[in-house]
Each structure stands twice: as C-alpha cells, then as structure tokens.
Amino acid sequence: MSGLPKKSVSITEPSEDKDIPPPRRKFLHQNSLPNFTPDNYSSDEDDKFEHTDDTPGGGWTNGQIPPLFTPAVTLHPYTRSGRLALYGHHRRWINFQSSWSRIGAGSSALDAVHGESSRGESVMEKCPVEEGKTVKALVAQLCERFYYQGWATGTGGGVSIRVGGPSEGRPYRVFVAPSGVQKEDMVGDDVFEMNMDQEVVEAPKTPNLKISACTPLWFVVYKHVKSAMCVIHTHSMNAQLATMLDPTEEATVLKVTHLEMLKGVGHHAFDDILEVPIIDNRPTEDQLANQLEEAILKYPKCNAVLVRRHGIYAWGDSWEQAKAQCESFDYLFETAVKLKSMGIDCGVKPMKGTYREDASLVGVKEKETEDKPPAKKQKVGNGSLPAFNAAKAMKNDADLQLTRTTIPLVPRDSKILLLDIEGTTSSISFVKDVLFPYVRNNLMDFISNLSSEQVETHLLAIKKDFTTLESDHPSVLACRGLDETSDSAQQNLAARVIALMDHDLKKTGLKAFQSDMWDKGYKSGELAGHIYSDFKPMLDWCKSNKVRVCIYSSGAVHAQKLLFGYTEHEGDLTGYLDAHFDTTSGNKHESQSYVTIATALEAQPNQIIFVSDSEAEVKAAREAGMMAVVSVRQGNAPLKEYVKRDFPLVRSLLQICGDGDHIS
Questions:
Q1: Which position among 260, 294, 484, 568 bears the catalytic label?
Q2: Which portions of the sequence form the region Disordered (predicted)?
Q3: Fewer CB within 10 Å: C terminus or N terminus of the chain?
C-alpha cells in the first residue's frame, strides 16, 4: 500500500484543460465582506445557505447541511487561516448596525464614569424585513447565552430589543422573547414583534406561542427611560440572593460602594454609592408594573431594579450596553453576597485600605500617640470547628500576633463577650427615633395612670439624678421654680423627665422611669425591639461554642431585657444573654466600671472582649485591661482618626466569631 500514489482532494470543479492547473484555493478571509452600510447591505451571502421558512426552527442544528457547504467552509473554524478569518474579521454576535457599540460615548478611556454607548447607524433601515429577521435572531442568540450563564434556566428570563424611533424618523419596532420556551433552543422564528401600544405587529412563525409575561414591564422601562433600547430580565442566583441580604426582607434598596465594577453599571464611579432598588415579588409578573414604575422614577441613576426572591430587570441604550451592565450588576451582586458571608457590608465605605487624597496628610508622618505594649501571642490548638473568621497555625505564627488593632475572636481569645447596645447590637436610630419619641408622646398619659406612691418613687429617683449635675447645668436651670407640692408631683415629674431627655443624659433614675414606660409599650405591641441581622447568628455561634454574651448599656437592665425579649423578627432572645449591666455598675466612660463588671463576671478584664461604637467607652475598657473593639454601623457617629488607627474595627459582630481553638 505504501507504494500507491496518495490521493488528493480538490474543492474546485475539475478543469477541462488538463494542462491548465486549477486555480489556487482562496480562504474565506481573502473574500471578506466590506463593512456594512445602508447602501451596500445585501442578504445574498446569507441566501447561499438555504433555510426553509416553512418549518420554524428547521436548520443546520437539526441536521440539515447546506448543499453549498464545501470542505473549505466546513474546515473554516478549524484551520489556522480559518481561525484568522473568524477572529480577525467576523464578530460572533449578530448585529443590525454598521459598527459595534462602544460603552462610554464621547468619553476617554480614563473617565471615571460612563453613561452612554457609542453605536453605529442602522444598516437595515431600508430593509425592514431583513432588520426584523436580524433582531429576532439576536434576541434568540442573547437568550441562549443567558441560559448557559445560568440566568435563564427552566424557560425563565427574557430579552426585549427595540429599534427605530424619532431619531430615525420612524416608529419604534419592539421585539420580545416568548414565554415558556427553552431559551437555549430559541430561534428568531419564536420572537414577537410589537409596537409601542403593546400590540402584536407580527406573531412568531412558530405556532402556539404566548407573549412573555414580562411584556408589560418591558414597556414600563421604555416609557420612563427614553434612551432604553434593550431590556434584559434574568433569574440570576446572585441577583436573587442579593435581595435577601437583609433577613427581614424589608430593605427597599441594595447599596454597593468601592468596587471597580461599579463603572460597568453606568453613571457610577468606583467610590460612588450605587443604590439598586428592590421591589417585592408578586404571583404574576404583570403585577410588578406599578412597583417597577415607582422604582425607576425614584432611582433614575440606576439602570436596574431587583425583584425580591426573583431576579433582575436591567436596561441600556443599546443591546450591548444592556448586556454589559447586566453582567456588571451580576458581578456586584455576587461580591455583595460573598462579602456578607465574611461579615462585611458592601454598602459601607472602607475605613482603611482605600486611597484617599488628603492634603493634610501629604508628606506628614503619622506620630504614635502612645507606646504600644508587647504583642500578645495566640495559642492555637487543633480544633476543627467551622468559623466565620477561621484562624489556624499553618506556619504563620507571625500572622497570629494579637496586636492593638487585631480583631480578637471568640472563643479563641476570650470566652466572655461584653456588648454595648446602641450602634452595636441595635440601631441608634431605633432608640432616637422610636423609643425616645414614645416616651415624650405618651408621658402625661403614663404618669396620670400611676399611683401616687409610684409617682413619688420615680420623682425621688430623678431628683437624685439632678444632684449629680452642676448648679448651672441647663437641665437644672430648666427646673428651677417648679412647684414641689404633692398636688403638682405629676407635673414636676414630667418636667424633670423632659429636662433630662432634652440633653440626652444617661441617668439611673431617668432610665428606670423610661424602662417602665417601654414595658407598657412592648407588652401592648406598640413597640418591638430592633436588632441587626447579624446579632442572632452571632448568638447562635457563641452558644454553640460556650461563649458567655453579656450586655453593658446606659439603658436600665429592665429596658435591655425588654428590647431583647420583644425583638421584631427573632422573638425572645433573653435566653442567649448571660448577664446585664447598666449605670448602676458605674459610668461607661470610666475604666473602674469595667473592672467592676469583670469582678462580677469572676474574670480578669483581659479575658473579656468589649464591643461598642463609643470612643470614650472603648478607651475606658482598654484602660481597664479589656480587649476593646469598635463597632462601625451605618448611622453611627464618625470616628476620630486616632480611633481608626489604634482600635480594631468591625462592621459586623460575625467578624469576632473565630474558630474553636482558643487560649488555654
């Protein structure tokens, strides 16, 4: 066999003149089509590959090979020259314009914010039939891609594209994906064409299809976002989980900041705060229209709306921009979900590690304000429990040095956790905007229902509060001249309560009176305690690891137990708490108070972790010997630079939950 001549395969017709060699084969890249323009557009090249319009969905994928498919064509993607032609000249996406849309029209590559896309002119304006075919095929191609990205499984999701409009001197043509079709197997023949009155202009060639349930929502976007030319709806898992980062599921917006991909969603720079509105899901998608409309009008800077436990609607001024923004949103949502699992709030500006232009710090070396004590070395055992912040010795002893700014972990570094309430376990605004107004608004009604003995008891306790104030204190001055007779005891008590509250004084008698008022409010259902979403998981972690959780607040112990006993979504949590302390243990700004608490807990101060949002409190706790941590929550007072520099900062209580290994 080896002596036989090798057979050769020719892809050209045999020459009649055997003396004339056949013409040299040309690869497709040598016959590349010129750039499309409205004048030279032709569908002739497409017509070479026969496709019957009589059978929607019939085509090459169903085994029909075009008769003109020569070996040169079939080998096109697999030969070097073929690949050069494919990737050198031919884009993979179907398009109906003269050039690819570039995100960021009229801007430079260095701009921090991009708003519009730069796109070419329609090449098919004069060929409406071909334009329709092309856009429909593009809708099918996008749906297929989104299926493989996990965004449109189970026939979910969809795409709408519109073309034309006043800028082209013609009506809009709106193309929408159908409902209940496998998105990975869609073809252009499955797509509906509509007008802006939501009327079907041309039904799909595929019979028995229904228009997408998203259709009313496409038109809500087109109505209120005049520049929108494409709307994408996905059932992305990242988008769905992002709507549930707030376990109360009451959040109306997701905030994200200081992430590079913010540039990809339009109108936002790296250090801007992106606010993505969240609307509640309904049994059918058409019922979302009013909510979607309100969200678009309220957040005009955002090019997307999240639907809780459902997915996302995103749009752009071209299909390319809509796709790019949808991908960027999904990246941000995935990041937000993963940051949450690390105990980090994606909507809070980082305290450290982010570049800042501060002229006052240029060329100035930070000066240490006090000598740092020797680092405390952590003893790490061989525990294997899972952790929110795991730490194990893997030849990294240098990394396990507990410094002044290292976040201590329970139970690794301590078995006792002492927590402030306001700004740590619960929102400051809950106290300022709910609890305090409740006292003011119901003060006289409450006092009028007290017995004379109860009024006298509270009045004596609050008068004792006044003895701790200077004679010229505004609260003292406000109460001079009060009638001290028994007949005026109720008015006297009310005036003194208001005088102390006006200056936010943390006095024992006042706190006891307020807690009695709140007792009535909690038990009647008028009040419900607020806790941050990370508090209950932190309590569960501590309970499973035998960590004692204690509370130290300026609020009376009774008020503390009410807040944690009547929480809005978690019910009674008092069983998780080992001990409560208030100002009867001492002023929270004095270090001796923390020594007193440590003694009550039968522990040394250096065996206790204390967490608070107050600079004065963490400073006093550290002076007493405790491991002090600063709580950073939205709405808390800004921190001074020395606090940021000298204390560990946490944005979630889960950040202090370490592994099972601990100091012996």
A1: 260
A2: 1-65
A3: N
